[in-house]
Amino acid sequence: QVQLVESGGGLVQAGGSLRLSCAASGSIFSLIEMGWYRQAPGKQRELVARITPAGNTNYVDSVKGRFTISRDNAKNTVYLQMNSLKPEDTAVYYCNNAGATPGAYWGQGTQVTVSS
Predict the structure, then answer these.
(1) Rounded to the nearest 5°, which phi and psi values hold at 94?
(2) For position 116, what pLDDT does the model report?
(3) What is the rounded distance in angstroms from the CA atom of residue 76 to the CA atom of residue 11?
(4) Mind listing the pLDDT tens digit for each residue in 31-75?
(5) Which of 6, 4, 16 is nearest to 86 (CA)?
(6) CB–CB of 45/37 below 8 Å?
(7) In what order do the strands lie in the sheet with 18-24?
(8) How far apart are alpha carbons 8 and 43 in whole angstroms?
(9) Which residues contact 61 (CB under 8 A, 6 or more apart)?
(10) Are the beta carbons of 76 and 97 closer than 8 angstroms?
(11) Among 69, 94, 91, 95, which Cα is nearest to 82's?
């Protein structure tokens, strides 16, 4: 079973930056479209950024121009660079394949808190 370990979250002031990392186990990582999701308190988990094996990216409108997803297939790692953070970005951030369902395996996530 694939294991996912997210890291890099923390407390940051509005306008600040964080870089999240997700280390994935498994030999087929390089073949999988990966995504970063977030879940704010009282809200459903949402997919905010996705990246294909070839490196093509897509973002939800609320993070376009501020977040950048990237991957290193040699390290089985996907990253999320978050700039110009806003209080509404506060959430637990998870990585998973871009088509993951709520019932799928999820890692522990990493908490991002943006203070105003």
Answers:
(1) -130, 155
(2) 94
(3) 26
(4) 899 999 999 999 999 999 999 999 999 999 999 999 999 999 999
(5) 16
(6) yes
(7) 4-7, 18-24, 77-82, 67-72
(8) 22
(9) none
(10) no
(11) 69
